[in-house]
Structure formats: C-alpha cells, structure tokens
Design a protein that fits this description.
Chain A is mainly beta. Chain A has one helix spanning about 20-30, and strands spanning about 15, 35, 45, 60-65, 65-75, 90-95, 105-110, 120-130, 135-140. The chains are: A mainly beta, B alpha/beta. Chains A and B meet through strand 1, strand 5, strand 6 and strand 7 of A and strand 5, helix 4 and strand 6 of B.
Chain lengths: ~150, ~400
C-alpha cells in the first residue's frame, strides 16, 4: 500500500489570532500546547473565550505530551480542493490527546499508508513546518517499541 | 404536555422546478414554491400576513447575492408586495426548522394569521465548496490545513467512529439508499424521480470521503419548497386537510467552532431536541407511524434514529433492514425519498412530507392509517429541530 504523496500539496496557511497565537507559537518551538482553564484545569481545543466546562475566564496554554489515540478519521478520495489532489486518497484524522480528553484535534496521519487509520490506534505528534512562521502539528502512529 | 398542542397546523405546500445547477435566478424558484403553497391552501396573497425563512447559502466560498444565491424575506416581499404583511423573520441558527417554529410562535401570539415559510437552495455552476485560499482564518485554521473542507468530512469522521465502535459495516447503508430511491419513484418533485438505483450501484460507487460513497451524499440542486401555516381553526376552513403540530423542539449541540468529529455531540443535539418534542406532544417513539429524518448525508439518519429514541445506540444500520423502513414496514422512513432522492433542499422537504403523511395527502406513497408523523428536520449536531404532526388534534 502506497503512502499519500504530500510533497506537492500546498496547504492553506493558518492565520493566528489573539486566542490562537500561543498554540502556533508553541508549535513553532516543537511543543504541543493547548488552552487550559486555570480554575478547573480543563483542556480545550480549539481555543475559546471562556472555559467551556466551568465558564472560567482565566485561560493559559500549557504543554501536553503529544500522545493520543485516533478518535475518528475519514479517507479523502474526492479532491474538492485541487491543492490536495496529489495526495488523494489521504487520511484526515481526529486525535484525542491523552492529557486532554475531549480536546479533539484535526490532523493527517503521516508516515503510514492511509489504510492504517483506525479508531483507537495510538498516535504521537510530529511537526511539519509550513513556512518561517507557521509549523503544523501532525500525527503519526506510535510503535510499541517507542 | 404543551398547552399549545395542536393549535397550529400546516395547510398548503408548494414546490418549484428543480435543476441540477442554477439556470434561473433563485428568486424565481422561491416565488414558484410560495405561489404553489398559497394556491394549495386556496388562499390569495392578500391573506398572507407572515413570512419566514432561513436563507443560508450552503455552498461555501460563494458571493451572497439576494435573489440569485439566497432569497431573503426582503427579496420575497419585494416580489409579493403583500398588502397585509404583519410579521416576518429570517433566522440565522436552528436551520429552516427554526424558521417554521418561529412562525408557529407568531401564529400562537396572534400577530399574524397565515404565515408562509420557504427554503430556497442555490447550486452555483462550477465548484460547490470553495475552501479557504492561501490562508485559513478563524476556525478553519485548525481544519483546512489538513484538507478538511465542507460538512461532509465532518460527518464522515463521526461515521467512522460510529462504525468502528459498534463493529458495524458501511455496506448495510445500501438498504437506506435503495429504499429511499424506491420511495423517490413516487415523488414527481424529486430530482431522482424514476431513476433506478441498485445495490450493486451503491456498493460499486466511487468513494467521496470514506465511509461515504457517492450515494451517501445528497446531490446539490437548485430549487425551493414552501408551506402555509395557520391556526388550527382557520386551517379547518381551508381546502387541504390540516396537519396539526402536536409538538416541536429545537436545540443546538453547542460546540466551539472548528471542533469537528465529536460523535457524542451529534447524539446530544438529537436527544435534547427530541426530548422536548416528545414531552410537549405527549407521544413517544413507539407511537410514531411514519418518520422523516434529515439525510443530507446518510449517516445523519443513524444519529437521528438513535438519538431520537427509535432504536438503541449502535443498532441503526440493523434497524433499517428487513423491510422495516418500507411504506408498509414498522417505521416507514423518508417516504418522499429524502434529500438523497429530492436533491439538497434541506429539511423543509422533510417537514412537508411529515405534514402530507399526517393529513393523508401523500398520494401514491401515503402510509396507511397515519396518526402520528415524526420529523427530524436537520442533522442533530448542526441544529436539532424536531416536529410531530398528527391527523386529528388528539
């Protein structure tokens, strides 16, 4: 089974805003950091104005381990966006981080055939630089040996 | 139970011609549907004093041009110039079901007598979903870089979770596509009217976003539908037999924009919306004689059947087998063909069919002895809106 070819894909580049900038700043340093309520310690993603669990307003970004499981996935066959055409079929996955249950993160499954995407499989974060400013958190399968 | 149970009814219904993509301005479709609904009721435009719609353009990345890509209340009023308009609204959330529910509330409040609700759907020529350009702003910054575009992929990820958690197989969904296509053969207003679909067609069709193949997705079309709502006492004096509204519910599954794929959110949106409808109407799933459940993507029917309480979680793909959802089955489902049969007209078609079945006006596809007719008019996570229509004010 062949890998999806990402080499010719031009991804839309995220534009950080006041809520999301710390996430992207951390990613650039090779750290996965999510927004955390300082009152109830709940992690959430994407970042939001208040804590979605306790309505707390004191929020800060804290590093997490970068390990998690595939919560859900889809295999994209239809290249609605032509920029992704060279990669189809490819796996877009939803990851639930171990440290942050419910903080579902979108990603692609890298370094594995798309057929390896399955609910419940273990994954770990890797970082894909898009340009000098933006680095994209991505995920690959965690092998038992590591 | 709701003190306003069965005090409001759906009377006339109307349909426009449906084309694959835009040939006429969308306003022409909306006008045709609204005129049809008013005529079906035996009313004139001078009687209509309430207008409501949900004008959203589902094709993303296209310019909003009133009358061409959406039909706002302003656009409709500019065409109709209703002499007696007394109330109007266009809703931004809770989808077209929310617009219908606002019209119910206005009629109950006595601020209008005959309200028209329409849904007009534009399909632009060319690409339907235009994804963000070079840059991904706002919530899309966490999805678009990974190739997540329209709602189909958001639905698809929840569907893989459902399938693999419950050890189910997507091939069973063929029964839904085939059954609904057979129902479509009895609906001359449907895009796929009398166009056959076989199990082999379904199983061999191309993948769009696994687990969705082509026949799991409704086809974008250009068209409109409309209904007339009025008070029960007024409805009884009109030409069509009324479909009484025994109850309704609406509830968002509140989500931070950009968080996608949460199966539990789909289920909670459906559970909370339908709970209100069951409580207000006094009915429960076992009382339902016929059901319309939104099917923009086939998996919405799964979330609907389970979260509304028609079957247990993980059982929906087994529930739809063995003729259970046929016209003479235990729970006839999407008897007009659903969005998979009519094309993407959104949930007002489901509401129309729920009303037609309750009033015995569904023609060749009429289910026998319908007393209680259920409608889930939108995908639960997006904007859960549910209704119960009855053939008599029980």
């Amino acid at each position: 089974m062949t890998m999806s070819d990402w080499s010719k894909v031009t991804r839309p580049i995220p534009v950080p805003n006041e809520w999301t900038k710390p996430f992207w700043d951390a990613a650039k340093r090779g750290v996965l950091a999510l927004q955390r309520c300082q009152a109830c310690k709940h992690f959430q993603h994407p970042p939001y104005a208040t804590c979605v669990r306790c309505m707390g307003t004191e929020l800060a970004f804290e590093p997490i381990s970068g390990k998690g499981t595939i919560y859900a996935y889809t295999i994209m066959y239809h290249a609605g966006d032509k920029r992704f055409a060279s990669a189809v079929p490819y796996a877009s996955i939803i990851v639930e981080p171990d440290d942050a249950p419910g903080a579902l993160m979108a990603a692609n499954l890298l370094d594995a055939p798309y057929t390896e995407a399955k609910v419940g499989r273990r994954v770990e974060v890797v970082f894909e630089p898009l340009n000098d400013d933006i680095t994209l958190p991505q995920f690959r399968l965690t092998h038992a040996a590591s | 139970m709701w003190e306003h149970r069965c005090k409001i009814a759906v009377s006339g219904v109307g349909f426009s011609r449906v084309t694959r993509s835009a040939e006429l301005p969308l306003a022409a479709h909306a006008l045709e549907a609204v005129k049809g609904a008013v005529e079906d009721s035996g009313l004139t435009m001078a009687d209509i004093d309430g207008l409501a719609t949900y004008p959203e353009l589902p094709a993303t990345g296209h310019v909003v041009i009133d009358g061409v890509t959406i039909v706002s209340v302003n656009c409709m009023m500019a065409m109709l110039k209703l002499p007696n308009l007394a109330w109007h609204v266009q809703v931004e959330t809770v989808n077209i079901g929310g617009a219908v529910q606002q019209a119910v509330n206005a009629l109950l409040a006595g601020v209008c007598k005959y309200a028209v609700v329409w849904r007009a759907m534009h399909n632009p020529k060319g690409t339907y979903q235009n994804l963000p350009g070079t840059f991904a702003q706002g919530p899309t910054q966490f999805t678009a870089p990974y190739g997540f575009g329209g709602p189909g992929q958001g639905m698809a990820v929840a569907y893989t979770r459902w399938l693999e958690r419950h050890g189910q197989s997507r091939e069973k969904m063929a029964t839904l596509a085939l059954t609904q296509r057979r129902h479509t053969h009895m609906n001359p207003h449907a895009y796929f009217y009398k166009q056959p679909l076989t199990r082999e067609d379904y199983l061999n069709s191309r993948m769009v976003a696994y687990p969705f193949c082509l026949y799991d997705c409704d086809i974008p079309v250009q068209g409109a539908v409309a209904i007339v709502l009025t008070t029960a006492d007024r409805a009884r004096d009109l030409r069509p037999r009324p479909a009484y509204i025994a109850g309704y519910g609406q509830r968002l599954a509140f989500e931070v924009a950009g968080r996608i794929g949460s199966l539990s959110s789909y289920m909670e949106g459906g559970r909370s919306s339908s709970r209100l409808t069951w409580e207000r109407s006094g009915f429960s799933p076992k009382d339902v004689d016929v059901a319309q459940i939104y099917d923009g993507f086939s998996a919405s029917v799964i979330y609907g059947l389970e979260s509304y309480g028609f079957c247990k979680e993980g059982e929906a793909l087994d529930f739809i087998q063995d003729g259970r959802i046929e016209l003479d089955g235990e729970l006839p489902l999407n008897t007009f063909g659903g969005s998979l049969g009519t094309g993407r007209i959104h949930g007002l078609w489901h509401i129309i069919e729920g009303a037609l079945q309750a009033s015995g006006r569904a023609g060749e596809r009429q289910v026998k002895d319908v007393k209680v007719s259920f409608v889930g008019a939108s995908a639960p996570i997006v904007q859960g809106t549910t209704f119960i229509f009855v053939n008599e004010p029980y």
